[in-house]
Design goal:
With 159 residues, the chain is mainly alpha-helical. The chain contains six helices and no strands. It starts with a helix and ends in an 11-residue tail after the last helix.
């Protein structure tokens, strides 16, 4: 009985948090303007974007099944796809936490050890991001230097 009460309290708590976040998001939005703007959205374009999004989630989930099979875990494709969709949902609220949520979901459903998977996501991706950001900043800096202090000889460019 205690487990049932715990799950009920969890559902009510997270439903309350969701409703509170929706309220905070839309408290200054005029519902009539929102509805008028939504009516102007082309339905065919919206359906195309949603279909492409679902296909991307399915392929990423199947890719996870292949990766986990190479590590020796047997995971159903539907559970991996659901875990990927869940990770995208969590990333909407808290960036970079979706990877942990996906691993946790797979651990709860298929007993996949979380550290095998999350090390790459949590350690390697930020490193790649920082490297690319550093390179981008260097490129922007050189372009600004060229614009602000042009070289009198066009053959000589600043480093």
């Amino acid at each position: 009985m205690a487990n049932w009460v715990k799950k009920t309290v969890q559902y009510i708590l997270f439903l309350g948090i969701g409703v509170a976040l929706l309220y905070l998001t839309f408290k200054n939005v005029n519902p009539i303007d929102l509805w008028n703007n939504l009516k102007e959205v082309p339905v065919s374009g919206l359906l195309l974007v949603v279909a492409i999004g679902f296909i991307a989630i399915i392929f990423r989930g199947l890719r996870w099944v292949q990766m986990l099979q190479s590590l020796g875990y047997e995971v159903k494709g539907t559970r991996a796809i659901a875990a990927v969709a869940f990770s995208y949902l969590v990333n909407l609220v808290t960036p970079r936490v979706g990877e942990v949520a996906r691993c946790t979901a797979l651990h709860k459903t298929d007993h996949v050890w979380m550290l095998n998977i999350s090390f790459f996501d949590l350690r390697f991706h930020p490193l790649v991001f920082l490297t690319l950001t550093f390179n981008l900043c260097q490129q922007i800096h050189s372009m600004i230097e060229m614009l602000l202090w042009p070289s009198p000889n066009p053959a000589i460019l600043p480093p």
